[in-house]
Amino acid sequence: xxxxxxxxxxxxxxxxxxxxxxxxxxxxxxxxxxxxxxxxxxxxxxxxxxxxxxxxxxxxxxxxxxxxxxxxxxxxxxxxxxxxxxxxxxxxxxxxxxxxxxxxxxxxxxxxxxxxxx
Length: 118
Known about the structure:
The chain is mainly β and about 120 residues long. It has one helix at about 15-20, and strands spanning about 25-35, 40-45, 60-70, 75-80, 85, 95-110.
């Protein structure tokens, strides 16, 4: 890896999740970031509505805890603790039927916001 972001990084998930819970939209981005990847934390309360739109980057979601359903690619996917999901760039997707608070670590490639939308 090259560039100014090629360095070791770490984050405390409990602290970042607390920040995400308090943030508008339940999201904290760029928890970790390199030239090729960024990581955020997304929290959806039980019964919440996920209003996200398709993104210009590929995403991998890792469900730390909670229970919900992901609609992606025209298909419903169950989500629970330990589920790993890949959503390609520009695919419509959203979490729904959130039964228990959903805590997600989101991996973006390339880094979130670095690709022009379109």
